[in-house]
Amino acid sequence: MITMTGMFPASRLFAAKLIIAICGLIWTVSGAAIAGPQRLVLTGSSTVAPLINEIARRFEMQFSGVRIDVQTGGSSRGINDVRKRIADIGMVSRPLKPDENDLHAYTVALDGISLLVHADNPVNALNKSQIAGIFTGDIVRWRDVGGKDARITVVNKAEGRSTLELFLDYLQLKNSAIKPHIIIGDNAQGIKTVTGNRNAIGYVSIGAAEYEVQRGASLRLLALDGVEATVENVRNGTFPLSRPLNLVTASDPQGVIKQFIGFAQSPQVQDLIKAQHFVPVDAD
Amino acid sequence: MQTDRILTGILRAGALLAVLVMLLIFCFLLIESWPVLTGLSIAGFMADASWHPLEGAYNLMPMVSGTLLASIGAITLGAPLGLASALFIVFFAPLHLASLYRRLIELLAGIPSVVFGFWGLTTLVPLISEWQPPGASLLAAVLVLTLMILPMITITACAALAAVPDELFRNASALGLSRWGTIAGVVLPAARVGITAGIILAAARALGETMAVLMVAGNVVQHPESLFDPVRTLAANIALEMAYAMGDHRSVLFVSGLLLMLLVMVLSAMAGLLEKRQQV
């Protein structure tokens, strides 16, 4: 509540308190009515949250005594909340840093993104500096990276998307340094844009791109630093543009927390993971 | 008398509800955008270097210009086309053709905007990109919007033309005016208010159209220098970023919603003013 009062001007403080009091009352009453269900709070990365939400819904159906509350706020909030014991589990869309060794991380899925071009584009692979050159506008024609003599159409993602964040992190760039010609929202729009433009280059989740290529879309996934862009290479950790999606706890997980993490890593939720274009960790 | 009173009550309640919903939406937008309206400087929305909310730059002006240009373009193309279609239906087409044509136009009005967007993305944009890359551009947005507002303009213009009193026609024939003379000199002036109202309604729709524009406009935040440059509209901005926005970024998106609403308000005020001038 301390943080809340900072946000509200004094005149609205009373209203805010009233609302909180009412919510509290409702919560207490409903809690008493169902004989106190166990509550599990997860906070953290907005990349992981939609997946965990789906998994939580399935978990709640199987274990009716548990209520799961999923909140976003970024990976660092996940770490903080777990350390302060505000959340039971944190969602973190990167490997733990050395100074976070006090925490326990459990990888639920992997996220990889792949650069893609139109199938008619003769370019097969690009290295990191070529990609940075293309996306920052230093390289404007495909001829300069071994392709045809045509202007490159750079397709970037809208601000706030996790694929954008991972991509920028890989290139060590800020989004304001990118000079895009088209900005897209979701993976499907990116795929449609590149299939419709012979000179476009974009990037989407590997799972989504590979699925479209298998269905015969005129796309090519580019190899990166000599590694083919496949779900398999994301899984075995050789593809450079990938990251683990972790659940993090402060101490050795017990009881429901342990149950939930186990459930999120089990084969029972692999269809949910694939539906979000992530890569399940299990090899089978 | 009893039923009259009940009816009046029901109508009053309905009207009040409609206005209340609109007021509530306005209040909601205001409350959601309040943190940045008071916390950040308003000048920043006009003077920041660019739109990079995660880096603290919130210039909304390129999106205002994108929204206005796309709508103005669509009206410039759609108004003459729509008016021509309406004139064709009411005065020139043989009866069976007129009703068939009218059905087709009504069908066009019923196509969901996402279908227009999908068609634009897979057909129109590649076509333009063969000619002037990258294809996703102000031009594509204008063309898709034109198709979407065309039926609206046609149908309202049809209604306005059909409402012109018969005696005006009879007088015009008695004076020996040609068909075109009757239309240009008598019918169009008489139907002007209705036609203008239709065009303004269509403009409001063009300003707020989201999905179709989002798919074809390219969404790069910049003041376009030509028809072939990509633009981002205010509505598309909200749709693109809302799901992933937090904190100030989210509030600024509500500010763009507020701005969009103001644009539509200015438009309807203009419509009111036009109507008043017509009556004088």
UniProtKB/TrEMBL annotation, chain A:
<keyword id="KW-0732">Signal</keyword>
<dbReference type="InterPro" id="IPR050811">
    <property type="entry name" value="Phosphate_ABC_transporter"/>
</dbReference>
<dbReference type="Pfam" id="PF12849">
    <property type="entry name" value="PBP_like_2"/>
</dbReference>
<feature type="domain" description="PBP">
    <location>
        <begin position="33"/>
        <end position="267"/>
    </location>
</feature>
<dbReference type="InterPro" id="IPR024370">
    <property type="entry name" value="PBP_domain"/>
</dbReference>
<protein>
    <submittedName>
        <fullName>Phosphate ABC transporter substrate-binding protein, PhoT family</fullName>
    </submittedName>
</protein>
UniProtKB/TrEMBL annotation, chain B:
<comment type="similarity">
    <text>Belongs to the binding-protein-dependent transport system permease family. CysTW subfamily.</text>
</comment>
<keyword id="KW-1133">Transmembrane helix</keyword>
<feature type="transmembrane region" description="Helical">
    <location>
        <begin position="107"/>
        <end position="129"/>
    </location>
</feature>
<dbReference type="GO" id="GO:0005886">
    <property type="term" value="C:plasma membrane"/>
</dbReference>
<protein>
    <recommendedName>
        <fullName>Phosphate transport system permease protein</fullName>
    </recommendedName>
</protein>
<feature type="transmembrane region" description="Helical">
    <location>
        <begin position="252"/>
        <end position="274"/>
    </location>
</feature>
<feature type="transmembrane region" description="Helical">
    <location>
        <begin position="135"/>
        <end position="162"/>
    </location>
</feature>
<keyword id="KW-1003">Cell membrane</keyword>
<dbReference type="Pfam" id="PF00528">
    <property type="entry name" value="BPD_transp_1"/>
</dbReference>
<feature type="transmembrane region" description="Helical">
    <location>
        <begin position="68"/>
        <end position="95"/>
    </location>
</feature>
<feature type="transmembrane region" description="Helical">
    <location>
        <begin position="183"/>
        <end position="204"/>
    </location>
</feature>
<feature type="transmembrane region" description="Helical">
    <location>
        <begin position="9"/>
        <end position="31"/>
    </location>
</feature>
<dbReference type="InterPro" id="IPR035906">
    <property type="entry name" value="MetI-like_sf"/>
</dbReference>
<keyword id="KW-0592">Phosphate transport</keyword>
<dbReference type="GO" id="GO:0006817">
    <property type="term" value="P:phosphate ion transport"/>
</dbReference>
<feature type="domain" description="ABC transmembrane type-1">
    <location>
        <begin position="64"/>
        <end position="271"/>
    </location>
</feature>
<keyword id="KW-0472">Membrane</keyword>
<dbReference type="InterPro" id="IPR000515">
    <property type="entry name" value="MetI-like"/>
</dbReference>
<keyword id="KW-0813">Transport</keyword>
<dbReference type="GO" id="GO:0005315">
    <property type="term" value="F:phosphate transmembrane transporter activity"/>
</dbReference>
<keyword id="KW-0997">Cell inner membrane</keyword>
<dbReference type="InterPro" id="IPR051124">
    <property type="entry name" value="Phosphate_Transport_Permease"/>
</dbReference>
